[in-house]
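Lecture 7, part 2: worked example. A protein chain together with zinc ion.
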Amino acid sequence: MNCYLCGASVETYLLKNGFCIYRCSKCGLGRTDLKKEYRTFVKQHYSKGYFTGDPRMSAYVDYKDDKVYIVRNLAKFLKKIHKHKPQGTLLDAGCALGFFVELALKKGYDAYGFDASSYAANEASQLVGAKRIQHGTIAEVNYKKKSFDVISMFDIFEHLDDPRADLRKIYSWLKDDGIIIIATGDTRSIFAQLMRRRWPFYSPPQHLFFFHKKNLADLLRQEGFTPFEWSRIGKWLSLRYLLHLARTTGESRIAQLVYPFAHHSRAGKLPVYMPVRDNMVVIAKKHL
Ligand SMILES: [Zn+2]
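Predicted complex, written out as structure tokens:
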């Protein structure tokens, strides 16, 4: 296998959850070997259980019930967008249950979203109206060319199996003076380098690509975008979600023991701020 980005040879980086993550010997891009067809995987994996705490998914404990924390994080992203585009049409790619679409609508944007999960897209439709939500992957959905001022991709980029092809489609939907905003894990963040295989972001098979700033910037430039603002954010989450991450991808035995108590107690819903800043946020525009 060769690197998706630069074509150099790859080597085994780690084995986790029964999957192999390879890393490029030259540019450092990480990639999961999914071992099956992506479309089939997406349909099976992003079910209701993914959002409601099925431990086999290493995903969310209760996405809907943790809305207050999720929205708190999303509000930070909206603030960044607002600085550059205070109004206009907005598309949230990988909108999950539609919380960001709802938030952007409240702020005055003409907001839309889509998600590959039929459970999520259905929930999002109920929240913001069916005309604003589509169901499908980036390859499957369609929008008018040059129709959006803003396209957001929060915590979705690492789930894509062909981010280059997907960026091309995103590019076609974006107005010439539009912006995209991407938030994804950074393999060269201090936390990622400290945690190594226990970094919760290394969670195959849901996460398929592992970028750092340099190789994400390279991919964006190759596909017609100029990145112009980089930042990092800490995240709010519930205590039980933190423990859930620790017991699944963090491989913590203590969290495994403590989790059942936290899940059913009020303490489990307490807010925790994780200032680890292992996520990078980039805003990019089209090349002129
Ligand atoms: Zn490479």
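The CA atoms of residues 118 and 194 lie 36 Å apart. Residues 67-84 form the longest helix (18 residues). Keep this in mind for problem set question 3.
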